[in-house]
Design goal:
Layout (H helix, E strand, L loop, with lengths): L2 H31 L13 E4 L5 H13 L3 E5 L6 H16 L4 E4 L7 H8 L4 E4 L5 E3 L2 E3 L5 H20 L6 E6 L17 H15 L4 E5 L3 E2 L29 E3 L7 E4 L1 H13 L1 H4 L3 E3 L3 E3 L1 H11 L8 E3 L2 H8 L6 H11 L25 H8 L10
Parallel strand pairs: 1-2, 1-4, 2-3, 4-7, 7-8, 8-12, 9-11, 10-14
Antiparallel strand pairs: 5-6, 11-13
Helix pairs in contact: 2-3, 2-7, 4-5, 5-6, 9-12
């Protein structure tokens, strides 16, 4: 089977499954609206633990879960006193002022420690579990991009500690894992790239937990976040590293990317991940032990340029500039910072896998539950719409 056929068949299956899940949610939602229940006191709400809550994605999940007012949220993280921890503390102050007891913070939670995780999961009804091939200590990340042996060890140390803690926590009825898009070509297409090792680890660990008796909802979301890739789509001071790639920002006549300009890439905003976590917990009968694919946007580099120009208020022009593959390959030998985006571009852009949604129309069913955070809205939030011609 050729690669395009394998991808097309997988994409159709994913969209059909999503349609069924969405319709099941809408049916239950309609039934509940006919039998409205009184609002529960905060102390009676289900308790959800979110691991790695100082991270960009898991922080957004904490924030979005608290917004629903349907869950008590226990934000777990390792190191207090970091800039990321301060963001959590600010959210706690805001939440406490309006809804005391809805959010609690638990620092000192080591993802490698069965004991710490067991204590953190105590009395919880659900857990958002984030495991990574990297290691973080005191706000600093050890990147294992070029180190598959120790990276696999680091990942499985977290997985086994989490499994033991979940098995010791009978109150936990549902676990949500956050994973890259599923492999659609390996073993089917005649030719394909070798799947990067850290993606392979992430793709199999949800089933590993299920095989050991844990009820898992696996959310497949894109590897590309708005503002979170090493090519940083922002004109703010956010930077994800020291390389020229991480310092690239949108400016007049410059909108950078790592993929070919006509390749469709799926993007996700972290707040959309948070919203869907809330939905998966709200409708466990639909999502328990299911794999579920989401995205916020599907677009090519050229389409991103067109959107930037269309939303800009001053007629500023933008051009897509691809970060050279040869330079990424060279830099990957010097710094691990570039390894992940290099492997992403190889895996999703060439003869390997491809994303789940080839156009924004494919995401229409998801919008029946949550309006997606569009790229236009993201550009506006960054201030890209205000860039004037000739502005430095």
């Amino acid at each position: 089977m050729d690669r395009d056929t394998a991808i097309m068949m997988a994409q159709q299956a994913i969209k059909e499954k999503n349609k069924g899940l969405v319709n099941a949610v809408l049916q239950i939602k309609a039934e509940r609206e006919q039998d409205l229940q009184p609002q529960k006191a905060i102390t009676e709400l289900p308790l959800i633990a979110v691991t790695c809550s100082t991270g960009w994605e898991c922080y957004a999940i904490v924030e979005e879960l608290t917004k629903t007012l349907k869950y008590r949220v226990r934000a777990l993280y390792r190191t207090p006193g970091t800039q990321a921890a301060e963001r959590l503390e600010t959210l706690l102050q805001t939440t406490e002022a309006e809804h005391p007891g809805l959010l609690t913070l638990h620092s000192g939670v080591d993802m490698n420690s069965e004991e710490k995780l067991t204590a953190a999961f105590k009395d919880c009804d659900g857990v958002v579990l984030y495991c990574t091939a990297n290691e973080a200590k005191a706000g600093k990340i050890t990147n294992h991009g070029n180190d598959p042996v120790n990276g696999r060890i680091a990942f499985m140390r977290q997985v086994t500690a989490s499994l033991a803690a979940l098995q010791a926590s009978p109150s936990v009825k549902q676990v949500i894992t956050l994973v890259f898009p599923p492999d659609k070509v390996t073993g089917l297409a005649d030719t394909y790239q070798q799947i990067p090792w850290w993606m392979e680890q992430r793709l199999v660990f949800s089933d590993f937990l299920r095989d050991n008796g844990i009820n898992v909802t696996c959310i497949h979301r894109p590897a590309y976040y708005y503002a979170m890739h090493r090519v940083d789509y922002t004109n703010t001071a956010q930077e994800r590293g020291e390389s020229s790639m991480s310092k690239t920002r949108i400016t007049e006549n410059n909108l950078s990317g790592i993929n070919d300009p006509d390749v469709v890439i799926n993007w996700v905003d972290v707040r959309d991940v948070g919203k869907w976590c809330g939905t998966c917990f709200e409708y466990p009968d639909v999502f328990l032990n299911e794999n579920f694919s989401i995205a916020s946007c599907a677009m090519t580099g050229n389409e991103a340029v067109a959107i930037a120009e269309r939303t800009n208020k001053h007629g500023t022009t933008f051009k897509y500039k691809q970060f050279p593959l040869w330079l990424m390959k060279f830099l990957s030998k010097i710094t691990a910072e570039v390894v992940y985006p290099l492997r992403y571009s190889q895996w999703y852009g060439f003869d390997g896998n491809a994303y789940d949604f080839e156009s924004n129309d494919d995401l229409a069913d998801l919008e029946k539950i949550h309006p997606r955070w569009s790229f236009e809205e993201k550009l506006e939030s960054w201030g890209i719409t205000e860039i004037k011609p000739g502005q430095k």
